[in-house]
Amino acid sequence: MKRQFPYIESNILETLCKTLGEALTNTEIDKYLADSGLKNVEPVGTKWRRLYNSFVEYQNRTQVSNGILKFVQISIHPTRFVHNKELFEATRTDLNKIFSFIGLQLGENGKFRGTEKATTISQAEQRASLLFSKLEDRNVHPEVLKFCKSELVENNYFHAVFEAVKSVADKIRSLSGETKDGSGLVDAVFSVNDPILIINDLRTETEKSEQKGFANLLKGFFGMFRNTVAHEPKIKWKIEEYDALDVMTLASLFHRRLDNSTKIR
Q1: Cα(2)–Cα(83) distance, rounded to whole angstroms?
Q2: pLDDT below 70 — which residues of the chain?
Q3: Taking Cα atoms as reference points, which of 213, 221, 216, 219 lies closest to residue 249?
Q4: Which alpha helices (H) appear in 129-240, and where do they start and end?
């Protein structure tokens, strides 16, 4: 790490050590302290306190946290979890709740990247949400994430889907100036004969078919998800994580095509 990372406050450091202590054995702590160039200040004792004392000694001596971050990267490297991805993701999630308070996030590749610093617990949980991470891995459109962040924190898939679908309708209204909703909105905006928005040049039969297909896909999307979610109580309409991921990915596809659409009237 060429960049010099600042001193980690003691309360954050203590929580970090407790989380690492649950994930590592004493033997692993000995090894990774040595591999990170940190002093093994307390060779015996409670795991988290051993880590805490070594980390404090390092920070007091260097006034940076680089060695601590190196320890995390080595000890929680994805290659150590090739046969247990769920454990890796769960550990990474817990760590990212802590690192969000210093503006860092441990990625799937085991390396740190910068992020907006969290100031509340809910913000930290939001950034560390497993569902949120999976959506980011799919490179889901930012508009989808923007409309359902609060739902993702609670892993409330019902409302997350509702908000993701709503985001597509909101985008169409914003781009077209049309005020309708659902199928009526789609018919008014993407009609082949008199469209407001087009997703291609609409010159050939193939391009006209694509415009029609896009419109039909949108109508099915709104009909299956938005109308159902809007009118059914949450307890009667169940959706699993993998379905939520797929719905939001489809919403992302719509957003990207809409970003490249053209308004012609």
Answers
A1: 31
A2: 1, 124, 126-128, 148-156, 226-238
A3: 221
A4: 130-137, 142-153, 157-176, 182-190, 205-221, 227-231
Neighbours of 66 (CB within 10 A): 18
DSSP string, 212-256: HHHHHHHHHHIIIIIHHHHHS-GGGS---HHHHHHHHHHHHHHHH
User: Which amino acid is present at 47?
Assistant: K
Q: Is the dihedral of CA 241, 246, 247, 253 positive or negative?
A: positive
What does DSSP assign to residue 110? S
Q: So what's the pLDDT on residue 77? A: 94
Q: State the pTM of this model.
A: 0.57
Round to the nearest angstrom and report the end-to-end CA distance of the chain: 53
Segment (H or E) for 59: helix 47-62
Long-range contacts of 93-99 (CB under 8 A, 24+ apart): 93/128, 93/129, 93/130, 93/133, 94/19, 94/128, 95/16, 95/19, 95/20, 96/124, 96/127, 96/128, 97/121, 97/124, 97/125, 97/127, 97/128, 98/12, 98/15, 98/16, 98/19, 98/124, 99/16
Predicted pLDDT of residue 145:
83
C-alpha 102/C-alpha 89 separation (Å) is 20
Identify the DSSP state of 45: S
Q: Which two tokens stand for residue 160?
A: 């997350």
pLDDT digit string, tens, across residues 191-217? 999 999 999 999 999 999 999 999 999
Q: For position 235, what pLDDT does the model report?
A: 42
CA nearest 71: which of 100, 86, 51, 53? 51
